[in-house]
Amino acid sequence: MNSLVSELPAGTYTVSEFAWEMKGVLADAYPAVWVAGEVQRLRSAARGQLYFELIEKGRGDRIQAKLDCVLWADERAVTEAELREAGVELSEGVVLRCCGRPEFWPGGGRLQFTVREVDPLFSLGALEKRRRETLRALEAEGLLERNKKLALAPDPLEIGLITSEGSAAYHDFLDTLVNSGLGFRVHLVHSAVQGAAAETEIDRAFNLLGAFARGSRRLDAIALVRGGGSRSDLATFDSRRVARAVARSPVPVICGVGHQIDVSIADVVAHTSCKTPTEAAEFLAGRVGEAAYRVEDAGRSLARQATDLLRAARRRVSSVPPRLASPGRALLRNRVADCRLAANRARTAAERLVAAARQQEEVRREGLIRNALRPVGRAAERLEAHARLCEQLSPERALARGFSVTRRADGGLVRRAADVAAGDELRTRIADGTVASTVDSGTPASKETA
Hints:
Order of helices and strands: HHEEEHEEHEHEHEHEHEHHHEEE
Structural class: alpha/beta
Largest sheet: 5 strands, mixed, barrel
Radius of gyration: 49 Å
Distance between the termini: 118 Å
Shape: flat
Strand content: 15-25%
């Protein structure tokens, strides 16, 4: 018998006994219970089971409580099929109402909720409730119509694009613009459009393009696009954060989310809502095409008006009597001559101005050169003065005045009598040569004889 068990007082559980007691109590107390919460940390296991957390948030999205859950492989396929049929995708952020039972695992010492059934209608209701709350909040903030009031350019050729790079929506949108043959310029900011990171990345993308538009660069519109999916797949576009980013955009937003029935909140607050990314691109191409057609039509109208005016003028001139034609031609010639004279005068004045400007530029250039060379001249003068001073202080000048330099045989300079000894050979340099000598004796000079 375990020594610990044998020493326990009466009525005391061991850890194992208490853990199994807890497991039995939970099984008896909660054979089946419904629990609702938001799905987080969704992850699949190798054997097909699905692990996730159900959380409850409080003020400021602070997590108040969470419960570890498992959906075993047998129930997972059925549950996911039921959710998809109702238009709900089992993903992070979805609110689920789950039926199951809590289980305590003694070996791991943890509580886990085993899910047996889910309520798809509850999830749809939670999504709709959140949607209504978001719409009310946006209306209170004055954001529902804010982006719609912005003026969209008649030729929106500079487009910001927010989508997942390389996705089907990305290619559909760009291919449609390219096939239009118009000169679009697209500024892509990659962003996730589904999952936990989507809201943050879309908000960041709008901030980047907003800063771009507020700068000196042109940006006519921002296209927010993604492909189709279930209602929960598109839940990102019902979020308050994404809706605010769309509404506060400094340029019109074209929303092309791949849905055919539902309208997301991003569609509601956007300047223009389209059903698909392709339709969003077609809308932009159509608007530019209409602007180009209006310009061409205006050009054709002006050409017709000018032609009509010329024809009328020719008819009036041809109807003038011959006696008035000659004075008219003379007046025309005089006017032409006056214009040519004025043009010659203007050309002469312009040539004079150019010559004066060139002369001023030459004077300014010469002044700059003189200013640049002035420090060089002063430096040369100082260098010449130093050279004269060095020449005056040179050893050759000192030797010419009668001084001499005496060195020992080893090259050492003799400055004092103590520097030599009897028998040392000396070399004395004077102005015109060198004198060799040998020391017989040396005596330091006294101060009086020095």
